[in-house]
Every structure is written in C-alpha cells, then in structure tokens.
Design goal:
The protein is mostly beta strands. 8% of the residues lie in helices and 49% in strands. The longest helix has 24 residues. The protein is globular and about 90 Å long.
Length: 834
C-alpha cells in the first residue's frame, strides 16, 4: 500500500503537460487563413443548491465535475452512479449490502451511503431540496428517477451547501417541459433476470410546461437471496414568464431490495453466490413535493425560493449471528432458574409473539431446516427448575419482556438473531435566496445570499428477535422471541425532531479580466431532540453551531489554461442515530438499539485545493479538456462506527483527526466521431490520531479482542488509486460502439482500521456498449459488464464464522468476509422517441 507519491505526481503532471503543450503547438501551427479557434462555451453551475442563479464554472476555485442526461445514459439506460463511477476519478462504489441498487458512493474518501453506520461526508441535493435523510444523513440512491435527471454537478468542499459538505456536494437538477420535449419509451433486459421499462414525456404550451417520467425494474440478482424491485415516477409542472419561472415537482418511489451482504471467504471459495446469514431486506417508500422558482426584480437582481415536503418510510429486516447462546456458567444458569421460578406460563408479550411465528416455521426442505421446539414446552413446562438450560450473553442471562429468562429452547442447536427496524420521517423545509450581479467599483460581481431551513419529525422503532437458523442457507426461522436485555439490546420506540438553520453568502468578484476572487461562508445551527416513547433513557436535546468560511482565486492565463486555489471549512452535526449509539457499554446493531449516551462532538473539516484546467478547441469539431487538481482535507473530531466488545454490536465515537489528500487528473478528447476519456485519482485517506477499538474477529487483534489504530493507518474501504478510461466511436451516423475500463487498487477491510491484515485485492474490469439507429426515432442498444468475468470484491469486513456452522464449508475458520461484485452480464434494449 505504500507508494511513491512523488513519482506518481511527476508522471501525471508530465502527461497532462505534454497533452497541453501538444495541443497548443497544433493550434499555433494552424495556417493563417484558418478561422480563429472557437472559444469554449461558458458552462454555468449553481453557486448554491437553489435553482435559478448560476456562475461561470471556470471561476470556481475548486474541482467541479458536470454531467448531463447524455452522459448518464451513454451505456444504454440512464444510470447516475455508473456514470459518475466511470467518469469521475475520485469516485468509487462499494456494496456492503450486496445489492447493486444500494451502493455506498465515495468521493475523495467521503461517503454518501444508504446504510446506517457509514459516516456521511457529502451533501446531496435534488432540485434544491436537501436529499440526505434527516435520521442518519443517509442517501437512498434508489429513490432518484435516473431518466428524469437533466444535469448534475459534483463539487469539492463548499460551505454554502450546508451540513455534510465535508468532502463535497452533489447537486442534481431534474428535467422539465421547457428543457425536454417529446416522448420516449425504453424497454430493456438481460442477465440476472433483469427487466426494465422507462418512459418520459415533456411538452411546452405557451408559458406552461409539463414533464412526466417513470421507471419499473426487476432483477433476480447473481447471488443467493439477492433481488431488486424498483418503481418510481416523477412529474413537473412549470410556468415561465418574462420575469420569472416556477416549478411544482412530485416524486413517488418504492423499492424492495434483498442484499446478501458479505460472505466468509472460505464459503465464497465453495460457492461464489453464497450468502452468510439471511434475511437481509430493505423496503423504501418515498413521496416528495417541492415548489421552486426564481423571479427577476430587474436585469441585475433576482430572488430564488424553495419549499418542500418529503415522506420516507423504511423497513429493515436483517438476519445475524446470535449474541445469545447456551450459558456456559452454571451459576448463571442456576440464577436464571431461580429467577424463572414462579413465572408459571409466564411467556410474556414476546413469547406470545414468538409462538405465533414459530409454529408456522421450520418447513422441511432440502436445506435441512431445523424444527424449533414450542416455547411452551420450555418455559413454564413440567421440568424442574434445576434441569432447565438457559441462554446467556457476555453480560449475563438472556431475557425477554418482564425480565423473564430465555431457555435453551433449541437444546444447543444453531441460534440466530433477527434485527428489525422501521423509520418513518416527515421532512420539510424552505429557502430564500437573493442574487445581485451589479458591478462593484466598476468590477463585475456576482453576489448570492440566502437563508435555508430543514426540519423533520421521525418515528423510529426497533426490535430484535431470537430464533433458529436453517442449516443450509442460514436463514432465520422462528420462534422469534423478543429480546429485552436492559442496557444491551431492548426494543426501542423513539421520536426525533430535527431543525437545521443556515445563513449563507457567496461573492465572486472579477478583479481583472483574468483574475476572479471568491469568498463565501455559512452559519449552521442544528438542533436534535429525542423522546423515548417506552419511558426509557432515550431523551435529550442537542445543539450544534458553527460558522464555515471559504475563499479562493482563479486566474485565466489563456482560454486554454486556468489555475485556481482555495480554502473551505465545513461541518456536520452528529445525527440522531449517532447521538443515541455512542457508548461501548450501550452499543447498537444496525444503529438501531438506542440508549442515552454521551454527547458527540461535531465534525469540522478544512480543505485546501489547487490545480489547473483548460479547454482547447480546433475549429467547431474537436476539443481537448483537461484538469489536474490537488486536495488535502483535515477533519477534527471525526466520527466513525467502531466495533463493540459485544458480538455483532458497534457504536459511534469521535476518534480525533483524519486526513484525505490526493489528486485528480482528467483528459477528455471529443470530435465528430470520437469521445475518449482518461481519469486518474489518488486518494490517500489516513487516521491522524491514536485510538483503541474492539475488533473481536480480526485475526490481528490482541488477547482482549482489541486493535490499536496509529496515525498513518489507512481508512478502510477507500482504494488509493483508480484509473478509468472510456472510448466511444461513431462508426457511421447510425452506429456507435464503446468500451470502458476501470482499475482500482486494494483497500483495507472494515474492522481492520489498524491495517493488520492483507487488504481487499485490487481489480480491473472492462465493459462494452453499442447502439444502432434503425430509424431516426428508433434505436437498439446493448451493453456488457465485466466482459472478462473477473472475480473481484468492492467491500470487505470480518464475520463470526465460529458462531455459525457453515455446512457448505465445514471447518471454516477464516473470518475475512467479502461482498462479490457482479460477474459477466449482457443487456440490451430498444428506445423509441416520438
């Protein structure tokens, strides 16, 4: 993992410089009678999340990446994350869940993930509306209608984008009837049982417009118990007048995602499609309504505004290894028996539910399911108390409601746990922004100031059940006894209120025709309140205040060369999920079993970045775009989720300082036939403080199951190097072919923050695509992924192989556990436009 950064920097700089010099020489050698080089088209990006105010992208003192709908659908069907992963060097995707529609998006080592437990370091907006979920700042990518995306910006750290913009922001703008007219229908399918249908329609009539899009997708998957079902619809009603524009947007989305997660390496060696424990299911339901618009007060002053409401409901069902096993200590068993005396048939609320689940379970099939015994035959049965066996955790005897001890109802057979959670969130917000482009002291100036409010009410419920696991697929079956172990794992019902206020400004001053100075800042005030509906300790109010400044310069040496440099500060407040799971004594599974815990400190980032970029053109047909940028981001009080001494549990904690630093280098050549891109990124993400954490299943852990992280250890899950290339060639006016390559270096496993084990291997994967126009409005398209059928993995951690018998790999002892990426697959479809 150690590299010669100097050599890499030198090589990339030399390559970019050679390309720039060559292009400049070609330009200089044009015959005198040739027309002058056409100046690059000014590309405008939003200086804030709100729609309606834009600045020249070339004046931004930070790296920016812009994509439109043509980039997103280049492979065949629109795919936002595939496009970003292929065309942005510092982007990587990993799949902890094992579902292709639920990946974690990483940019410069910062995550925007749909999974609780991944600290979120990117701010995501859709049509000016904050898209990070209020409960855990998570980002559910499956809820965005990909075919309705018009364009998006990926930008480095900018405080104007509010909380979570530690490493940057993603600003998505959707289509409307003014920007997209006509109709389109896509039908596609292919490997892994994938079937997909998409439509979109847009129309402009006078000052009004309408746009409608929808998607239906099903995929069986390439692993056991892996499947995906997604449906979404998006609508926009627009009005445009001489002095303003307004849009009313609607989004409805639903998804059912089964992801097998990671599997132990020895099990994968026997069966690459195998899952470890099941079920692993997430269901999302989403409704969003937003109203946004802009009005010109005069030719230099305008107002932008936004109001929105979002409803989000998520159900999670996750089968896991047990934390409750037959007691090994006779004293504990005797104590449990004594405590159980007098209970009679005291099954409690949980046991009644367990009987209902258990009686219908244990179907006899080829997987060798076990038949769990009726709970009534164990609790309150005819046996004497001294002959009863009970279950224990490391903290003592396992209990259900009322402190009733749980008996060894499987007589020592394989136990498993089922963790469930339900999250219902009503989110709402509003923003108002003022834009002024009046000259200042005779100099061109672009000033933006605004106020934003984001609020939410969330109801969160979580319950953990104890039952058996099938011997074949390790799938959870009944009886489903509710676990209620005070201070360790208890049912939860909590109400959460979030309120976040932001006041921001950004000013770009054209000091000279070539020099632009930018200064910006934002004051964030975040408030979180928790109320325990079960009368427990999950109560409290938390507040976080912070002002984040930014400043930078850009200088245009020539139309083909601009240099920039800047500084930005950003912060994120601990989420309700983190605040309520912040102690090793009161840890969580799936970040859902909450207790009153110590207050966490907010995370603050400081980013320095500098670089150069340019766009060289020959006539009207050919252009070469290039960029080379360097960045370093230091975080104070970074929050990570670390393992607890209790098996299968973890907690959030501040771990001091971390650092992400590196470079991004991009080359893109475009002419009337070719579109060729090359992207390289170095992301060096390291811890900068000492801390000790539990990692029981890490082979390098000490006798107490702990690992010690030292400054310089690499953060897990982040490949240091990525190289990406793509080439598309227009063979004829009707036929286009394309090829892609993506190479990523190794990355350390989650749970190995001390870097004690070999990392997850690097990989190289190739893809291909083609399209052919049968008629002007009828097109065939196809694409293939992983055409060499490489076996590779994008996520790794450790699993408790000693706690669960693996019938397919008896005697498996290695705890390393990987999430396999998709094998070779072929897909095709038909696009009709009307």
């Amino acid at each position: 993992m150690k590299i010669s950064v100097r050599r890499l920097l030198s090589a990339v700089v030399a390559a970019v410089a050679a390309a720039v010099v060559t292009a400049q020489l070609l330009y200089a050698q044009q015959p005198p009678d040739q027309p002058a080089v056409v100046m690059p088209t000014v590309q405008v990006i939003a200086p804030s999340p709100l729609i309606g105010s834009g600045i020249d992208r070339n004046s931004v003192p930070a790296a920016t990446h812009v994509q439109d709908y043509r980039d997103i659908e280049r492979r065949g069907v629109p795919d936002l994350l595939w496009s970003l992963n292929q065309e942005v060097g510092a982007v990587s995707l990993d799949s902890a869940s094992g579902n292709p529609f639920q990946p974690t998006f990483n940019y410069r080592g910062f995550a925007a993930s749909p999974l609780q437990g991944r600290p979120q370091g990117l701010a995501v907006y859709v049509n000016g509306m904050r898209f990070n979920q209020p409960f855990g700042d998570t980002v559910d990518w499956d809820l965005i209608p990909n075919n309705a995306i018009d364009r998006l910006n990926v930008e480095g750290s900018n405080p104007v984008f509010g909380l979570n913009a530690l490493g940057g922001s993603i600003n998505v703008q959707m289509k409307n009837g003014f920007t997209w007219q006509g109709g389109e229908l896509n039908l596609s399918g292919g490997s892994f049982g994938q079937r997909q249908g998409e439509f979109q329609w847009g129309h402009k009539f006078g000052s009004m417009s309408a746009y409608l899009a929808g998607t239906v997708l099903h995929q069986d998957g390439w692993r056991d118990l892996q499947s995906s079902d997604l449906q979404n619809a998006y609508a926009d009603l627009g009005w445009r007048g001489s002095n303003g524009e307004a849009h009313l947007n609607f989004t409805i989305a639903h998804s059912d995602l089964n992801g097998p997660g990671t599997s132990p390496v020895q099990l994968l060696a026997v069966n690459p499609a195998a899952q470890f424990t099941a079920p692993n299911f997430i269901s999302n339901n989403y409704v969003a309504v937003s109203l946004n618009g802009t009005v010109d007060l005069n030719d230099r002053v305008s107002l932008q505004g936004l109001a929105y409401y979002r409803y989000f409901r998520q159900n999670v069902i996750n089968g896991n290894a047990p934390n409750d096993t037959p007691c090994k200590n006779d004293d504990d068993a005797s104590s449990a028996a004594d405590n159980g005396n007098g209970n009679g048939n005291g099954n409690g609320n949980g046991n009644g539910n367990g009987n209902g689940n258990g009686n219908g379970s244990g179907d006899d099939d080829d997987s060798g399911d076990i038949q769990p015994l009726r709970l009534g035959s164990k609790l309150g049965g005819s046996q004497s108390s001294n002959s009863k066996r009970f279950l224990c955790t490391e903290s003592g005897v396992s209990t259900t409601f009322g402190g009733v001890p749980i008996e060894d109802f499987l007589n020592g057979a394989q136990y498993g746990s089922l963790d469930t959670q339900q999250t219902s969130t009503n989110a709402y917000g509003a923003a108002i922004q003022f834009t002024d482009t009046h000259d200042v002291f005779g100099l061109k100036n672009h000033f933006v100031a605004g106020f934003a409010f984001d609020g939410a009410h969330t109801q969160f419920n979580a319950v953990s059940y104890l039952g058996g696991l099938t011997t074949g697929t390790r799938d959870f079956i009944g009886p489903g006894i509710i676990i209620d172990e005070a201070g360790q794992n208890s049912p939860v019902s909590v109400g959460i209120t979030n309120s976040t206020y932001g006041i921001y400004f950004a000013d770009s001053l054209k000091v000279t025709d070539r020099l632009t100075a930018t200064v910006s800042g934002r004051f964030n005030a975040a408030f979180v309140s928790l109320s325990d509906f079960n009368g427990g300790e999950i109560n409290g109010s938390h507040s976080y205040l912070h002002f984040n400044p930014a400043a930078g310069l850009t200088y245009e040496f020539a139309p083909w060369l601009t240099v920039y440099g800047g500084y930005a500060m950003a912060n994120r407040a601990p989420t309700p999920a983190e605040l309520s799971c912040a102690s090793p004594l009161n840890s969580c599974s799936l970040a859902n079993f909450f207790v009153g815990d110590p207050e966490l400190q907010q995370v603050v980032s400081q980013t320095f970045e500098w670089g150069l970029r340019g766009d060289i053109r020959w006539g009207n047909e050919a252009s070469l775009r290039y960029s080379l940028g360097f960045f370093i981001t230091n975080l104070d009080n970074d929050i990570v989720m670390v393992n607890s001494p209790t098996q299968g549990r973890a907690f959030f904690t501040n771990v001091g300082s971390t650092r992400r630093q590196g470079l991004e280098a991009d080359l893109q050549y475009i002419d009337e036939r070719w579109r060729v891109s090359l992207h390289y990124a170095l992301v060096d993400a390291t811890f900068q403080s000492w801390f000790t954490t539990s990692s029981e299943f890490n082979p390098g852990a000490d006798a107490n199951g702990n690992i010690t992280v030292q400054p310089g250890n690499y953060l897990p899950g982040i490949p240091q190097h990525q190289l990406k290339a793509s080439a598309y060639y227009k063979v004829t006016d009707k036929w286009t072919v394309g090829a892609t390559m993506l190479a990523a270096s190794s990355q350390f496993l989650f749970g190995d923050e001390a870097n004690l084990n070999p990392p997850l291997p690097g990989y190289v994967t190739f893809g291909a695509s083609t399209s052919y126009k049968l008629l002007p409005n009828l097109e065939l398209f196809a694409w293939a992924q992983n055409i060499t059928n490489a076996s590779y993995y994008t996520f790794g951690t450790f699993s408790p192989t000693s706690s669960i018998a693996i019938a397919q790999a008896p005697g498996a002892t290695l705890t390393q556990s990987y999430s396999p990426a998709a094998p070779f697959g072929v897909f095709g479809g038909l696009r009709a436009r009307f």
